[in-house]
Write a structure and sequence with these properties.
The protein is built from 15 helices and 16 strands. Strand 1, helix 3 and strand 2 form a beta-alpha-beta unit. It is an alpha/beta fold. Bound molecules: ligand LP7C6HRI and potassium ion.
Length: 477
Amino acid sequence: MITADRMAAVDENAAALGIPRKQLMESSGNAVARVVRRVADPGAAVALVCGRGNNGGDAFVAARFLDDYDVTVHLLGRPESIGTDIARENWATLTAADYDTRVVHDSRAFELGDPDVVVDAMLGTGATGALRQPERHVAAAINEAPATVVAVDVPSGVDADTGEVAGVAVAADHVVTFHDAKPGLDDDEVTVADIGIPEAAELFTGPGDRRLLSRPSDAHKGAFGEILVVGGGPYTGAPALAAQAAMRAGADLVRVACPRAVAREVQGFEEGLIVRPFDGERLTGGNLGHVGRLAADHDAVVFGPGLGDHEATLAAVRDFLDDYDGRAVIDADALAVVPEVDTEATLLCTPHQGELRGMGGPRADDWRDRVDAVADFAAELDHTLLVKGAYDVVSDGDRSRVNRTGNPGMTVGGTGDVLAGAAGALLATQAPVDAGALAAYANGLAGDRIVDRQGYGLLASDLLPELPPSLWGGVDE
Ligand SMILES: NC(=O)C1=CN([C@@H]2O[C@H](COP(=O)(O)OP(=O)(O)OC[C@H]3O[C@@H](n4cnc5c(N)ncnc54)[C@H](O)[C@@H]3O)[C@@H](O)[C@H]2O)[C@H](O)CC1
Ligand SMILES: [K+]
């Protein structure tokens, strides 16, 4: 089952893999024609009722695969109002090749005739809300006709994200849906057609995944999360990098909790950082109360960058997780305590493969085996894992993603802190798997853009200004 939003992301990822949408439309139209062949013999009268989006475009294609049928193509609206290039091109082919095309300017002038089969290609996954005119009137006419109705992708009037019907919907005898089942469809009537989208378009992160991040225009301050980075002690650069990365990944506000002794140094990395120091040289049971109170006021916490592995620090992390029930990214030395705690918190753990084994996790050399092994271990921990490597594997035990952006130049120190900070910001608004996958994608893409431009020798801090374009656009790939 796939929602309309996720389908759009997969579609964009497929395009990035070199499969343009027009090619998918050709496969979709072919699949529609195959279902028509199943329900009626050659020579039967087939009315293709087409909207102005790509759903209509699929039926324009189908017409070319039904030359031995008596085909009529109805376009609801003027040809100039066809909304996409690929649908417009396929319409132009029909008129150039002299198919029986009819342009419906006015719903009252719509005449369905007496077809044996009606193909409902008015609206698909791009529809929002109740059917408007002329689609509403035409849907009623289709429902009254004594024809076999084949719906393309979803019956027009059914919301492809929720499966709900607001008002009128086409009552279909068969639905030919593409790539995967859509919400709200009755299994008995559905043919899921393989339109040649490779599994990679779903499994691997790609530019389509960034669709999750669209910022609503009425966003108010706070809608994208306040993030607390807990780190520093032996190391000061790590929490500063993580905090800056969280800011670059769109967090509204980022605060750093670190030992007072290093607060000035952490602050020195970036004027915009808000530092909330605690007493002592490192995180311990003694200053944990301060951190716990701060954490409760934030949407997500990033735990680990530069904390060190002092016994008292790890004990404090353990105590923190015992009480915490919010969202947290766990990185670096703090990872070791995760398997030992029984916490209500929602954790996104970001180990590299050595740290994963330190957590008692699996070893798998081949990335395909690793996907299964990481999924099993995530299910066992009941947390989400982002296992870093040439192929990053992200899994919550149920959903798994693999990220391939990034390059050997990124083995330099600090890139993991940037990743953890970005993941923390995204964790405030996204499901943990999506936060991990998007952070890995953007962090790696940022590194790829730098290396493309200037070659190796990148610093982790170089990644920071590249995070926004990697997450929100301006990406030339
Ligand atoms: N990989 C894929 O998903 C592929 C899908 N294909 C087909 O494309 C459609 C989705 O196409 P899209 O252009 O995005 O949207 P629609 O055709 O569904 O409709 C857009 C069109 O409709 C207008 N509109 C929106 N809501 C309403 C409404 N309530 N009443 C009336 N009109 C409405 C809107 O203004 C737009 O103009 C998918 O379902 C598949 O069939 C590709 O062919 C191949 C790959
Ligand atoms: K449809």
